[in-house]
Design a protein that fits this description.
Radius of gyration: 20 Å
Number of helices: 9
Distance between the termini: 60 Å
Shape: globular
Helix content: 40-55%
Strand content: 5-15%
Order of helices and strands: EHEHEHEEHEHEEHHEHH
CATH topology of the largest domain: Rossmann fold
Number of domains: 2
Strand order of the largest sheet: 3-2-1-4-6-7-9
Structural class: alpha/beta
CATH class of the largest domain: Alpha Beta
Length: 279
């Protein structure tokens, strides 16, 4: 039986590739984008298999209405992909309060709105799969992306709790953690803080590092589209999965550093416990 998908941010990037992959194999997709015209090509190519919906995920009432409309139109929802989001670039000192608030409105509260709208419907079905598009930056942090990391680390914690809360209803939750991909994430869709000269050298070093990366380490968005199908078809999908090769190389190093540092300072941890802890 074809699956029914609800995908936010389906006008470009990952969301578009996810929608195309699902539709090309015969599934049906409720595709959302802030500008409905961005979905015209999908409708032209796939007709009634696509339900195009204009949606700004920061509008809670609109998110609930879109999810409800998709469910009524197709009769059920099998896979809900919270993909809409963008990158905020700037050091912690540079980003403004408004920029950080808006980053959270889209990357965190937007996910919350769609998730809360979908949960009663999935619970009634006794099935469903919530796929939250996170990032390798949801478990590791890099300079000049502190505001973005705030949104994705929060998404990780929210989703891990959610997975435990809804498992008894037959609902699965997966955090997809991609590495670098050839999308527009760092291009026109990104927001950049007003730069301060103190951080110029750091920005230059980060840019040089990006330029030196092996081009084959940058993932192909179409491959991510095919991978999401395997994830959606898994009988027991993982809570977390990397997309791309870079996260598989970086994550072990990050966690090894953390384990070593926790162990190195375990004497202080025991001291802080009290109750006569020593050694």
């Amino acid at each position: 039986m074809p699956k029914v998908w609800f995908i936010t941010g389906a006008g470009r990037g990952f969301g578009l590739e996810f929608a195309k992959a699902a539709l090309q194999r015969g599934d049906r997709v409720a595709a959302t984008a802030r500008r409905a015209r961005a979905l015209d090509a999908l409708v032209t190519a796939h007709g009634d298999s696509v339900l195009p919906l204009p949606l700004d995920v920061t509008d809670r009432e609109a998110a609930f209405a879109a999810v409800r409309q998709a469910h009524e139109h197709f009769g059920r929802l099998d896979v809900v992909v919270n993909n809409a989001g963008y990158g905020l670039f700037g050091s912690v000192e540079e980003i403004s309060e408004d920029q950080l608030r808006q980053q959270l409105e889209v990357n965190l509260f937007g996910v919350l709105h769609v998730t809360q709208a979908a949960l009663p419907l999935l619970r009634e079905q006794g099935s469903g799969h919530l796929v939250q598009i996170s990032t390798i930056g949801g478990i590791a942090a890099f300079p000049n992306l502190g505001g973005y990391h705030v949104s994705k680390w929060a998404l990780e914690g929210l989703s891990e709790s959610l997975a435990q809360e809804v498992a008894g209803f037959g609902i699965k939750v997966t955090l997809v953690e991609p590495g670098g991909y050839a999308t527009d994430w760092s291009g026109s869709s990104a927001v950049h803080a007003e730069p301060q000269p103190q951080y110029a050298a750091l920005r230059e070093a980060m840019a040089a590092r990006a330029q030196s990366m092996d081009p084959t380490s940058i993932g192909e968005p179409s491959a991510a589209g095919q991978a999401i199908l395997d994830l959606a078809d898994a009988e027991e999908p993982p809570l977390r999965v990397f997309f791309g090769t870079v996260p598989t190389q970086l994550a072990p190093h990050v966690y090894q550093q953390r384990l070593e540092q926790w162990d190195q300072w375990s004497w202080l941890s025991r001291k802080a416990n009290g109750h006569g802890a020593v050694g």
